[in-house]
Amino acid sequence: MASNSSVYHHTSFVLFVALILCLSSPSVAAVPSEELEIAISLLRVRGRALFANAITTSDILFDLLSAESLTLLVPTDAMLFDLDMRYSLPMYISTLRLHALPLRLTISELRSLPNASSVPTFLPSHSLLLTKPSSSDSVYLDGVEVYLPRLFYDRHIAVHGLANILPLSRSRWTDIENRAFALPPIVDSPAYSPSPRSTWWISPSPEDYIEFFGSTPAEPPRIGEVPVSQPPLEEDLIVGDGDSWINGF
Ligand SMILES: *[C@@H]1O[C@H](CO)[C@@H](O)[C@H](O)[C@H]1NC(C)=O
Protein backbone atom coordinates (compact mmCIF):
# COMPACT_ATOMS: atom_id res chain seq x y z
CA MET A 1 0.00 0.00 0.00
CA ALA A 2 2.80 2.35 1.00
CA SER A 3 4.78 1.51 -2.14
CA ASN A 4 1.72 2.09 -4.39
CA SER A 5 1.23 5.49 -2.88
CA SER A 6 4.89 6.38 -3.41
CA VAL A 7 4.70 5.36 -7.07
CA TYR A 8 1.60 7.48 -7.41
CA HIS A 9 3.34 10.48 -5.89
CA HIS A 10 6.38 9.96 -8.05
CA THR A 11 4.25 9.89 -11.20
CA SER A 12 2.41 13.05 -10.31
CA PHE A 13 5.67 14.78 -9.55
CA VAL A 14 7.05 13.88 -13.01
CA LEU A 15 3.85 15.11 -14.65
CA PHE A 16 4.02 18.30 -12.64
CA VAL A 17 7.65 18.95 -13.73
CA ALA A 18 6.76 18.21 -17.35
CA LEU A 19 3.87 20.65 -17.14
CA ILE A 20 6.10 23.38 -15.67
CA LEU A 21 8.67 22.79 -18.43
CA CYS A 22 5.99 23.07 -21.10
CA LEU A 23 4.59 26.27 -19.64
CA SER A 24 7.95 27.92 -19.03
CA SER A 25 9.56 27.17 -22.39
CA PRO A 26 9.14 30.13 -24.72
CA SER A 27 6.88 29.50 -27.68
CA VAL A 28 9.63 30.65 -30.10
CA ALA A 29 12.87 28.94 -29.14
CA ALA A 30 16.08 30.25 -30.62
CA VAL A 31 19.14 28.25 -31.58
CA PRO A 32 21.12 27.66 -28.35
CA SER A 33 24.55 29.28 -28.59
CA GLU A 34 26.21 26.14 -27.17
CA GLU A 35 24.87 24.16 -30.10
CA LEU A 36 26.23 26.65 -32.61
CA GLU A 37 29.56 26.67 -30.75
CA ILE A 38 29.84 22.91 -31.15
CA ALA A 39 29.02 23.16 -34.85
CA ILE A 40 31.64 25.89 -35.27
CA SER A 41 34.38 23.99 -33.41
CA LEU A 42 33.61 21.00 -35.59
CA LEU A 43 34.07 23.10 -38.73
CA ARG A 44 37.44 24.27 -37.42
CA VAL A 45 38.73 20.72 -37.08
CA ARG A 46 37.18 19.64 -40.37
CA GLY A 47 39.28 22.11 -42.39
CA ARG A 48 36.53 24.71 -42.76
CA ALA A 49 37.83 27.19 -40.23
CA LEU A 50 37.56 30.20 -42.50
CA PHE A 51 33.78 29.85 -42.72
CA ALA A 52 33.59 29.30 -38.95
CA ASN A 53 35.67 32.44 -38.30
CA ALA A 54 33.78 34.50 -40.85
CA ILE A 55 30.51 33.70 -39.13
CA THR A 56 31.66 34.31 -35.59
CA THR A 57 33.31 37.66 -36.39
CA SER A 58 30.42 39.16 -38.33
CA ASP A 59 26.93 40.16 -37.28
CA ILE A 60 25.60 37.16 -39.18
CA LEU A 61 26.16 35.40 -35.86
CA PHE A 62 23.32 37.34 -34.20
CA ASP A 63 20.95 36.47 -37.01
CA LEU A 64 21.88 32.81 -36.72
CA LEU A 65 21.28 32.80 -32.97
CA SER A 66 17.90 34.47 -33.28
CA ALA A 67 16.58 31.89 -35.74
CA GLU A 68 14.48 28.98 -34.53
CA SER A 69 16.72 26.54 -36.37
CA LEU A 70 19.27 26.73 -39.15
CA THR A 71 21.30 24.99 -41.81
CA LEU A 72 24.85 25.95 -42.68
CA LEU A 73 26.12 25.20 -46.19
CA VAL A 74 29.86 25.25 -45.89
CA PRO A 75 32.32 25.87 -48.72
CA THR A 76 35.96 24.85 -48.20
CA ASP A 77 38.55 27.29 -46.87
CA ALA A 78 40.23 27.47 -50.29
CA MET A 79 36.98 28.62 -51.92
CA LEU A 80 36.36 31.27 -49.30
CA PHE A 81 39.94 32.50 -49.44
CA ASP A 82 39.65 32.87 -53.19
CA LEU A 83 36.39 34.75 -52.71
CA ASP A 84 38.06 37.21 -50.36
CA MET A 85 40.71 37.91 -52.99
CA ARG A 86 38.09 38.71 -55.61
CA TYR A 87 35.22 40.32 -53.74
CA SER A 88 34.79 43.50 -51.74
CA LEU A 89 33.82 43.04 -48.10
CA PRO A 90 30.09 43.74 -48.60
CA MET A 91 29.93 41.21 -51.40
CA TYR A 92 31.86 38.76 -49.27
CA ILE A 93 29.45 39.13 -46.35
CA SER A 94 26.42 38.89 -48.61
CA THR A 95 27.84 35.71 -50.11
CA LEU A 96 28.33 34.28 -46.63
CA ARG A 97 24.68 34.99 -45.87
CA LEU A 98 23.68 32.89 -48.86
CA HIS A 99 25.35 29.95 -47.11
CA ALA A 100 23.01 29.90 -44.11
CA LEU A 101 19.36 28.90 -44.18
CA PRO A 102 16.91 30.01 -41.46
CA LEU A 103 15.58 26.48 -40.99
CA ARG A 104 17.09 23.10 -40.24
CA LEU A 105 17.12 20.85 -43.29
CA THR A 106 18.65 17.39 -43.09
CA ILE A 107 19.89 15.83 -46.30
CA SER A 108 16.82 13.61 -46.50
CA GLU A 109 14.57 16.63 -46.05
CA LEU A 110 16.46 18.41 -48.82
CA ARG A 111 16.04 15.34 -51.03
CA SER A 112 12.36 15.14 -50.31
CA LEU A 113 11.69 18.73 -51.37
CA PRO A 114 10.17 18.98 -54.85
CA ASN A 115 12.49 19.66 -57.76
CA ALA A 116 13.03 23.39 -58.36
CA SER A 117 12.02 24.33 -54.80
CA SER A 118 13.09 27.67 -53.49
CA VAL A 119 15.02 27.57 -50.20
CA PRO A 120 15.28 30.77 -48.08
CA THR A 121 18.65 32.11 -46.91
CA PHE A 122 19.90 34.69 -44.38
CA LEU A 123 20.48 37.08 -47.24
CA PRO A 124 17.19 39.00 -47.11
CA SER A 125 14.83 38.19 -49.99
CA HIS A 126 17.32 35.81 -51.56
CA SER A 127 16.60 32.14 -51.90
CA LEU A 128 18.42 29.21 -53.45
CA LEU A 129 17.04 27.03 -56.20
CA LEU A 130 17.05 23.37 -55.26
CA THR A 131 17.41 20.90 -58.12
CA LYS A 132 17.71 17.14 -58.20
CA PRO A 133 19.09 15.39 -61.25
CA SER A 134 16.99 12.39 -62.21
CA SER A 135 20.16 10.29 -62.63
CA SER A 136 21.25 10.35 -58.95
CA ASP A 137 20.02 11.28 -55.51
CA SER A 138 22.34 14.29 -55.28
CA VAL A 139 20.91 17.65 -54.33
CA TYR A 140 22.05 20.90 -55.91
CA LEU A 141 21.50 24.40 -54.57
CA ASP A 142 21.92 27.10 -57.21
CA GLY A 143 23.82 24.52 -59.23
CA VAL A 144 26.27 23.64 -56.41
CA GLU A 145 26.20 20.08 -55.12
CA VAL A 146 25.60 19.33 -51.43
CA TYR A 147 28.75 17.27 -51.45
CA LEU A 148 29.35 16.38 -47.79
CA PRO A 149 25.92 15.99 -46.19
CA ARG A 150 25.57 15.53 -42.41
CA LEU A 151 28.80 17.24 -41.35
CA PHE A 152 26.91 18.03 -38.15
CA TYR A 153 23.38 17.44 -36.91
CA ASP A 154 21.92 18.59 -33.66
CA ARG A 155 18.43 19.53 -32.57
CA HIS A 156 18.42 23.01 -34.10
CA ILE A 157 21.30 22.88 -36.56
CA ALA A 158 22.24 20.93 -39.66
CA VAL A 159 25.58 21.47 -41.42
CA HIS A 160 26.43 20.25 -44.92
CA GLY A 161 29.59 20.70 -46.96
CA LEU A 162 29.32 22.09 -50.48
CA ALA A 163 31.31 21.05 -53.53
CA ASN A 164 31.84 24.69 -54.43
CA ILE A 165 30.75 28.13 -53.30
CA LEU A 166 27.32 29.63 -53.93
CA PRO A 167 27.83 32.49 -56.35
CA LEU A 168 26.38 35.91 -55.75
CA SER A 169 24.88 36.62 -59.15
CA ARG A 170 24.90 40.00 -60.84
CA SER A 171 21.19 40.57 -60.29
CA ARG A 172 21.48 39.67 -56.62
CA TRP A 173 24.35 42.04 -56.09
CA THR A 174 22.62 44.93 -57.85
CA ASP A 175 19.62 44.34 -55.63
CA ILE A 176 21.70 44.30 -52.43
CA GLU A 177 23.59 47.39 -53.51
CA ASN A 178 20.35 49.31 -53.98
CA ARG A 179 19.16 48.27 -50.56
CA ALA A 180 22.46 49.22 -48.95
CA PHE A 181 22.24 52.76 -50.31
CA ALA A 182 18.71 53.08 -49.08
CA LEU A 183 19.79 52.30 -45.50
CA PRO A 184 21.44 54.72 -43.09
CA PRO A 185 25.03 53.72 -42.29
CA ILE A 186 25.33 51.19 -39.51
CA VAL A 187 28.66 51.43 -37.76
CA ASP A 188 29.60 48.81 -35.20
CA SER A 189 32.78 50.33 -33.86
CA PRO A 190 32.90 53.72 -32.14
CA ALA A 191 36.51 54.07 -33.38
CA TYR A 192 35.36 53.90 -36.97
CA SER A 193 34.65 57.34 -38.36
CA PRO A 194 31.71 57.33 -40.74
CA SER A 195 32.39 58.49 -44.27
CA PRO A 196 30.21 58.33 -47.40
CA ARG A 197 31.72 54.89 -47.88
CA SER A 198 30.39 53.67 -44.57
CA THR A 199 27.08 52.90 -46.25
CA TRP A 200 28.90 49.83 -47.54
CA TRP A 201 29.77 48.56 -44.14
CA ILE A 202 26.59 46.97 -43.04
CA SER A 203 28.67 44.30 -41.28
CA PRO A 204 31.04 43.49 -39.70
CA SER A 205 33.14 46.26 -38.21
CA PRO A 206 36.52 46.67 -39.96
CA GLU A 207 38.28 45.58 -36.78
CA ASP A 208 36.54 42.24 -36.84
CA TYR A 209 37.60 41.78 -40.39
CA ILE A 210 41.25 42.51 -39.58
CA GLU A 211 41.10 40.09 -36.69
CA PHE A 212 39.58 37.49 -38.93
CA PHE A 213 42.21 37.73 -41.63
CA GLY A 214 45.11 38.89 -39.48
CA SER A 215 46.77 35.48 -39.35
CA THR A 216 46.36 34.58 -43.01
CA PRO A 217 48.79 35.49 -45.78
CA ALA A 218 46.10 37.65 -47.32
CA GLU A 219 46.92 41.17 -48.38
CA PRO A 220 45.59 43.83 -46.01
CA PRO A 221 41.80 43.99 -46.09
CA ARG A 222 40.67 46.24 -48.86
CA ILE A 223 38.47 48.33 -46.65
CA GLY A 224 36.91 51.22 -48.47
CA GLU A 225 38.55 50.27 -51.73
CA VAL A 226 35.32 50.56 -53.66
CA PRO A 227 34.15 54.15 -53.94
CA VAL A 228 30.43 54.64 -53.55
CA SER A 229 30.04 56.29 -56.93
CA GLN A 230 31.74 53.48 -58.82
CA PRO A 231 29.60 50.78 -60.42
CA PRO A 232 29.91 47.36 -58.78
CA LEU A 233 32.99 45.39 -59.67
CA GLU A 234 32.26 44.15 -63.16
CA GLU A 235 35.03 41.57 -63.17
CA ASP A 236 33.99 40.11 -59.87
CA LEU A 237 30.46 39.73 -61.07
CA ILE A 238 31.54 37.98 -64.21
CA VAL A 239 33.70 35.67 -62.13
CA GLY A 240 30.69 34.83 -60.00
CA ASP A 241 28.61 33.92 -63.02
CA GLY A 242 31.19 31.88 -64.87
CA ASP A 243 33.25 28.86 -64.06
CA SER A 244 36.41 30.75 -63.08
CA TRP A 245 35.82 29.53 -59.56
CA ILE A 246 37.05 26.14 -60.57
CA ASN A 247 40.02 27.57 -62.45
CA GLY A 248 41.00 29.69 -59.45
CA PHE A 249 42.67 26.82 -57.59
C1 LIG B 1 14.70 18.47 -61.95
O1 LIG B 1 14.77 19.53 -62.88
C2 LIG B 1 15.92 19.49 -63.70
C3 LIG B 1 15.96 20.73 -64.54
O2 LIG B 1 14.76 21.43 -64.52
C4 LIG B 1 15.88 18.23 -64.55
O3 LIG B 1 17.02 18.16 -65.36
C5 LIG B 1 15.85 17.03 -63.63
O4 LIG B 1 15.73 15.85 -64.38
C6 LIG B 1 14.68 17.13 -62.67
N1 LIG B 1 14.79 16.07 -61.71
C7 LIG B 1 13.83 15.20 -61.49
C8 LIG B 1 14.08 14.20 -60.42
O5 LIG B 1 12.79 15.20 -62.12
UniProtKB/TrEMBL annotation:
Annotated keywords: Signal
Highest taxon of source: Eukaryota
Keyword Signal: yes
Signal peptide extent: 1-30
Keyword Signal attached: yes
UniProt protein name: Fasciclin-like arabinogalactan protein 19
Gene: LOC108813395
